[in-house]
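--- STAGE predict ---
source: upstream dedup step, 1 unique chain passed
mode: sequence only
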Amino acid sequence: MAKWAWGGVLLGVLWGQSPMGSPQAIYIRSLVHPELKDTLLIGEDGTVNLPLIGEVHLDLRDWNTLKDTLNQLYRAYYTDPALDIIPLNLVFVFGSVRSPGRYFIPQPGSVVDALAVAGGPLPDANLKGSSLKRGKRIYRVNLDAMVKGKELPIALQSGDILYVPQKTFMLRFTNLQSFVVLLSLAWNIYLTLWVRR
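--- STAGE serialize ---
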C-alpha cells in the first residue's frame, strides 16, 4: 500500500481501487431536451429515483451499458432522449478554503478540482501541509505543488475528505521585514506598558 502517491488515476490503482470507483451520485442531462437534467443520488444498493420513471436499480459497473439502459427507459417519454451521464463523487473540503462543505465532483476529479470548487484557498492556507482522509487512512498532500503543476493531482473517490490547514504563526511571516516590524512593535508595547511604571 502506498502512503505517498503522486499520480492522478495511478493513485486509485495503488490503493487497490478501480480508477473510477463507485460514485455516490450521477448527473444526467439530455443533449436534445434541456428540461431533462438532474443530479441523482445513488442508494447503497444501486437504486436511483429517475424523474418520470421512478425507482430503478442500475448496474454501475459499465457506464456504456448504463447510458444505453437510461436512454432505453426514457424512450417511453422522448423519441430520442440523447442522455449523457456524468458520475459524481461526494467529497468534503474543510479548513482554510473560501467555502468549506460537501461537494459533488465529476469523475475523474482531483484534489485540485475539490480545492477550486470550494472557492480556492484563503490567504493563510498552508497548501503544502494539506491532508486527504480516505477511509481510515490519512495521506499528506502537497496541494501547492499540484496547483503549480509540479506534481500530478490525486484522483478523488467518493467519501474523501480534503483538509487545508492554516499556516502556523511563524509561517505567515514569509519575509524578514514583516517579522522585524512585528517584533519592534511588541518591544515598544513592552517598553510603554512595563518599563515606564
